[in-house]
Amino acid sequence: MSQTKDSQRPHHSFAWRLFHFLGTMELAITLLITLAIASVIGTVLQQNQPYPDYVIKFGPFWFEVFESLGLYDVYSALWFLIILTLLVMSTSVCVIRHAPSMFKDMFNLRTNVQLKSLRSMHHRAEWLENAETNVTAANLQSFFKTKGFRTRLTEKGDDTLISAMRGGMNRLGYILTHVAIIVICVGGLMDSNLPLKLAEWQGRLEIETQNLPLSQIPQESRLPVGSQAFRGSVSIPEGRSSEVVYLPMRDGYLVQKLPFTIAVDEFRIEHYATGQPKSFESDLKVYDPDLAEPITTTISVNHPLIHKGYAIYQASFGDGGSELALEAWPLFADQGDAVTVETKVFETREMRWGEQQMLLEMTGFRPFNINPDPTEDDPKNVRNYGPSIQFKLRRETGEAFEYENYMYPVEREGREFFLSGVRSSPAEEFAYLYIPADENGELAGFIQFLQNINDKQRVEQIATQMKNETLLSLQTEDDQVLGQSLQKTLVTLVDMFIRGGFGEVRDFIEQTLPETERDSLAPAYLAMLREMLGRLYFEGLDLAADEMVDESELVFMQDAIDAIGTLPRYGSPVYLALKDYTHIESTGLQIARSPGKSVVYLGCAFLIAGVFLLFYLPQRRFWMWLKKDNQQTRVYLAGMSNRNPREFDSFFEQTRAELKAQAGNSVKS
Amino acid sequence: MTANITTQNSDKSLLVTWLWRVLMALSAIGIISFYLEVLDVYEISIIILTAISMAYLGQDWPGFRWHAVAVAILSVFAVSLYGSDLNQSDSNFWLNYLLASQSAFMWMSALFVMATVTYFAGTLFRSDFTEKVGTALTWAATTMGMIGLMVRWRESYLLGADIGHIPVSNLYEVFILFSVVTALLYLFYERRYETRSLGGFILLIITAAVVFQLWYTFERNAHEIEPLVPALQSYWMKIHVPANFIGYGAFAMAAMIGVAYILVSWRQQKQGDSAWLRAMPSLHLMDDLMYKTIALGFAFFTLATILGALWAAEAWGGYWSWDPKETWALIVWLNYAAWLHMRMTKGWNGVPMAWWALIGLFVTLFAFLGVNMFLSGLHSYGTL
Ligand code: HEM
């Protein structure tokens, strides 16, 4: 008993069951959806950013968690590749299982049908033809042939069966569509950096994470010329050349040697009349030892150069070490002119300001900035903000502020300001210092005022003046005590203002005045400070005694006071302005070798052909069973289609009508 | 006797078909020889392919023939009114009130909204005539939209020879393309299946697009013609974008049929029978149409994604970079692949598939809009 039961339920090996499982539709659909959901991650979290950015974003704990999950490069994470592999395996199994029957279905005219099954089909008809069976058969066959059907005649005892089929290629569509998925994934694999990862895993390669000059990059991080796939980039300044390209890997890179040298003559950006960029182009010379002459060509976006299977694309551009002459204006000194500093983009140099030792790291330069106002959120207000420089000032403690200075002033309510952005980390937005431009549109007016305020002697002098006037107005000229304390207060107020702006003054009031007097005294203190600042300003102007001060002077002064009030938070003892420059650009090239590309394209061709065949070439079959009926022939017609049932309804009706019309008479359905 | 009439009819329609084909061939030849100096071989191929597809579409679709002829005549008229002076759009009566691209788009918007209302009214009051007016309005709207695109194409060249480009390059332009393509797809199926009572539903999503479009115009001045960034200066754009929008349009249509399906089956369960239910197509037919439109969308979306990959290989140095837009295209594609399998091999149908089609629309919408709004990547043109 038990034996028969066992033999009825066949034992399958593990391999067989695995194979079966891989081919199930449930798995296929689950994988499709899982892959879709997994893909979302990489679009929400920006991929392949510098690792410090992620640390800033997520904090050290989550940074590590996400890193171990491979979320910074999801699409080459192990678990993602496993899902892909499973999908490819599932599709392969599916094709292997279905292909044989599909092939058969493509050509098989199904001649082994029975009359009974024909008469039970949904689409059927029958009638009597006024002709011998063989004549009828010939007529029917030629009718279907003209309609593009393949036909076959089979003798069924005394009867005759004609089978007809059109659109057998629909089944080829199935095979092509599914094979395409496999082919595309194989091609993609050929172009992936999986071999590099493997080599790294085995310890044959080491990812370089530091920013080293090429000559210092160790051998373990270099790849020789070979036939492997890669995709990397390199930035080459005008007038220089490169024979390597850098492949980004996780938080570092590898160096790939090229079998030729690429020299850049010139990089150009052309602009539309509106200022938007119109084209990015590089004039290249490619020196290949195999060629007698170098290749001289110009590449641009959408027009790469392809040489020996290496494709060279215009991808980006940047500064190639522009030479800059800067003016450094002291912000906390009582006199002195700007100091000229000669430097280059990407150069780091030491600077000394009084006691302070600092490193000036030039990080960027742009010869013009045709863009929206950087301080506003209005994308339409586009104009030229002139050249800009980006730099970092690093203190001895190692902390650094980052700056961005624009050379043309921005306009605010009719007044003009020089903009200097500052931030303490790349994660922050720039905060802006607005330095008012003087009546000549220059910095000098502001600097003059600043120096007046910083001039201790002058401050004392004006404080004395003000004290005397006050005592006079109170008619207590000889109150020494009051006079001294007033003078001291005035000087201290200015001092505090220089040290910490209005905020510092307010803190002082909060902390030192008793609460009961605060409300009445605080405005008086602020008024005194303003009066001091005003006098310091006008003192510097050499006005004639009775000259009227015009509105714009007052506004300028107010703006300047606001700016000086924010200087303590500016974090730099100097303001850097650009005096002169020689612009040297570098072109960013992307260089790729993708041996799998033609495989992928073949897969794509399969996919398109397959999908259109599958959807738009329905497979239609007809059968006609011919039975001798005296001198006449009885015709049993049946038909079916594997898709578009609605269209087939009318197609069948039409075919039947045409056949009947051809038969002409004695029609009885 | 009856046989005679049918042959006469088919003789006549055969004649029309041939005339139409000849007209398309002549138009293609005319355009190519007129612009020969500025066209490259790819663009010539695109023109020939367009002519062939139009010849095919028009061979037994009279509405499409009239539409194409009207678009051609009125666009040429508008272009001739412009001459070489863009300012004509303010001074010339015809341009100002009808044919300048902005005016044409306004007409399109108004007509689409009217068509939506009319279709719904026709179904609700069971008036065939009203529904037919809905169809006519939809044709008119589509025609105005297409004219607007054609004229805008010319206007961009009048703005500057180097600025000129086909108007499928930013979010504003593709929204119009979306409305026009979706409407044409619907009109195609409406004629085949006599499904006028679905018109309101499908036009609803077009109306939504139109409302967005108007907001985008008035709030963000998005209608201004902008020059092309270097990455978009390629003939690929001319085929990649339209193929994509046939996909999007078909998916949107499937989703709206899904909505109609869900409503109808819900009302059927609740009250069994009503005038509105009788006016709506059968569940079976809607199910079938939903499948057909998703299949169409899937086919064209596949094509578009592959064209995109070919273009990316040329512009960015790799056929696939896992850029957010690419990845979302893959997500959309996988989603509909799963839908099709469910239906074809598991035989699922009915309400769950209708819901899935509707969810598919949101996935598609994110790929189309959300990526531009929320994510950054290589495709980051046309932000809001
Ligand atoms: C990325 C993977 C796949 C893609 C893109 C894909 C694509 C397609 C498409 C477009 C269709 C046509 C559906 C229709 O007629 O509406 C189809 C049908 C089908 N697929 Fe897949 N497929 C995939 C994987 C699979 C797998 C893994 C299996 C097997 C488990 C499978 C089995 C089938 C079957 C049996 C059909 C029905 C064919 C027919 O009779 O028309 N597919 N597939």
UniProtKB/TrEMBL annotation, chain A:
Q: Does the keyword Plastid apply?
A: no
Q: Which domain of life is it from?
A: Bacteria
Q: Name one GO cellular component term.
A: membrane
The ResB-like domain extends over 25-652
The places in or outside the cell where this protein is found are: Membrane
The species this protein belongs to is Methylophaga thiooxydans DMS010
Q: Cross-referenced InterPro entries, in alphabetical order?
A: Cyt_c_bgen_Ccs1/CcsB/ResB (IPR023494), ResB-like_domain (IPR007816)
Q: What's the protein called, per UniProt?
A: ResB-like family
Q: Where are the transmembrane segments?
A: 21-45, 77-96, 172-190, 599-617
The answer to whether the entry has keyword ATP-binding is no
Main location per the UniProt record: membrane
Topology class, membrane: Multi-pass membrane protein
What UniProt keywords apply to this chain's record, in alphabetical order? Cytochrome c-type biogenesis, Membrane, Transmembrane, Transmembrane helix
Q: Which GO terms describe its biological process?
A: cytochrome complex assembly
